Amino acid sequence: VTRLAEAYSSYQEFFVEYLTAEGLIKREKADLLRNEARRMMRLAALANPLTKEEWERLKELLDKDPDKVTLEEALELRELARKVVREYGEYPEAWKLHIYASILVGTAIRRKAEESKQQGQQ
Question: DSSP letters along 31-75, please?
Answer without folding.
Answer: HHHHHHHHGGGGGGGS--SS-HHHHHHHHHHHHS-GGG--HHHHH
